[in-house]
Specification:
By secondary structure, the chain is of the alpha/beta class. Helix 3 links the parallel strand 7 and strand 8. It contains twelve helices and ten strands. Helix 2 crosses helix 3 (130-141) and helix 3 runs parallel beside helix 9. 42% of the residues lie in helices and 16% in strands.
Amino acid sequence: MATAEPQALEYEVDDRGRERLKYREEGWNTWVWKGTEETTCAPYEINYVQGGEAGVPIVLVHGFGAHAYHWRYQFPELAKKHKVYSLCLLGYGWSPKAVVPYSMDIWGQQVADFIAEVVQEPAVVCGNSIGGVASLRAASLNQEMVKGLVLLNAAGNFEAVPLSEEERAELEAIAEEKKKGLGGWLASAFQKIASGLIFLSTKSRIGPILKQVYHDEQQVDDDLVRSIQTPAKDPQALAAFREISMQQARIRTTVPEMLDLCKEQLPVLILWGQKDPWMTPARGDSVNRVCEEKGLECEFIPLEAGHCPQDDNPDAVNKELLKWVADRFE
């Protein structure tokens, strides 16, 4: 449940005359999430932004290392015609840095529960990077509450081969065996050291790293860098990052299985930054092809942007998203 009336949004104008959400060091609204069976320290006070008073609800889900504020340019435009929400996934942004066995199943359930408890009506869900897979998982968990899906440079293995129950059980048994004895202890220790070094290195180089994946480097401004640096100062941030860094090894539901669990002919908009060094244009074509093969109603639009189109080229994202929602749902 939400703990209070939504925080009134403040906007500002950037150097190019574009409106955007004003950065708040303390965050925005709080929703108390019950968590899942794997999140033993629940409940959690999840931070989220909310704007707009009417229209088709749009839920925005950030990517790796980001947060609700990464959709700062979407709120002024989208909220004119829609109810708009952006939440911090558990472990990120202003949400708790819980030390839990993170997975797409946990984040997907979080998004699904957020729609059910906060939005309280079917919504279009938009996800960037790992947020794209979390959004897809939410759509597969609660078909009736996700009326449309938007993927922006989505991460995840869309071409993974679904595992049989026997294969899954065998892999889990092997993983458990590896944890035992000195070998398992050494592997765990190495993972902790490696993730710690990555965390510390990333924390001190946020600006340069962002510029590597943005096409328009001027978009990497002080507020964006500070918004990512501040959560990293949390005492639990390093321990949470270690768990987050291992989430790929905890895949219980593959991306193709998620697609199979979505409702038939789910409308999907794929917005793909063509300058992304991580999720390349070929990757975008592959995501589009796999989604179409699964029977989803796909529309693919290439954009002049890097890994985070919503912040790298916000005008183009807002234009295409608003048009698609109007054409499909209004």
